[in-house]
Amino acid sequence: MKMLVLISGAPGAGKSTLTEKLAEAFKLKRIFASGIMRQIKEEAKLDIEKAEKGMGFWESEQGKKLTEERLKDSYYDLELDKRLLEIAEKETKAIFDSRMMAWLYKGSGAFRIWLDASEDVRALRIAKRDNLDVEEVKKTMRERFEADARIYKNLYNVDIMKDRSPFDLVLKTDKLNEQEVFEIVSLAIKRFFKLKE
């Protein structure tokens, strides 16, 4: 049985943390899009195991620079999406932390999740995690999300800010802790794939 979980959402909504927890619970291969994009940028050989989550990367100078490059040149995003789709075709049990996969993957056996939270909550989470100034994080986070929105609108005519049509579950995480998010999503995954409780 094909079992792909595609997690998307706003920066700081908890995608990477949830990806880790679900991968362990459901024995899924972890696919972090930001890690693969960094490998593409460094012209490294694709190694899914070494493509780590982007915790703090996009808020760093290196991350901001890559976002600027992506706005000028579609190569990184197109190459990333091509590789992600190849992985999705090949893998039978995997979880993707990727902004675009929910829209791009057209095959069966995929459960699509959008995580959201208010900008204040998301900025506070990132600031606490990376020991950064909340207002600076908010500015960087907004710039990054808006840049991503421009990139995907240009490449795929998808509005990531508003379009939730591909998602099986849209979850606002403001008032939920990591464990509560995990429990809600786990239950939804079990029901979707008809797994035994």
Polypeptide structure, described:
This protein has 197 residues and is of the alpha/beta class. It has a single domain, classed as P-loop containing nucleotide triphosphate hydrolases (Rossmann fold, 3-Layer(aba) Sandwich), CATH 3.40.50. It is 52% helix and 14% strand. It has 8 helices and 5 strands. It has helices at residues 15-26, 33-41, 61-72, 75-90, 101-104, 119-130, 134-156, 178-192, and strands at 3-9, 29-32, 93-97, 110-116, 169-172. A 5-stranded parallel beta sheet has the order 2-3-1-4-5. The longest helix is centred in the last third of the chain and has 23 residues, at 134-156. The chain is globular. The two termini are 17 Å apart. The model has no long low-confidence stretch (mean pLDDT 90).
